[in-house]
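Sample pair:
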Amino acid sequence: MAIPQFILDIRAKAGETLLFLPGVVMVVFDERGRVLLNRRADTGKWALISGIPDPGEQPAEAAVREIEEETGVAAVVERVLSVFTTEPVVYPNGDRAQYMDIVLRCRAVGGEARVNDDESLEVGWFALDELPPLGPIARGRIELALRGDPTWFAPAQVPGIAARGYQAP
């Protein structure tokens, strides 16, 4: 996997310490309503396109860059779907990270879907009724992208008031 240089620099000093990092996750649709997915080289599983913004890079810029780098597809960002902190991840080398994912709905505007770097084994467009196996979080993010709901985020607990009726997408 292509680990950004700035993370390698941090790891050289921090070792396996848990890093809290920004992430962008993109639900990319084409003109036929299909969603763009990649089969990740690190896990072998199908997933939404995702990545880590470089220092100083805006989330939308990172999204457009990551989509093109990983899939060869040119896209524009339409809106923020959710902001979500993931569970911590432990990588095979022992490194630990946790991500605050900004999930973005995007629209393809050009390019040809293909494996465009070493992060993907396969890349493809999938009709919503023909999706490959995906985890519940990815499926929830696709469902959220299809609705016109406001941006989702985990509500803060207000002292003395219980948050009711909220579920992560």
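The first helix runs from residue 5 to 14.
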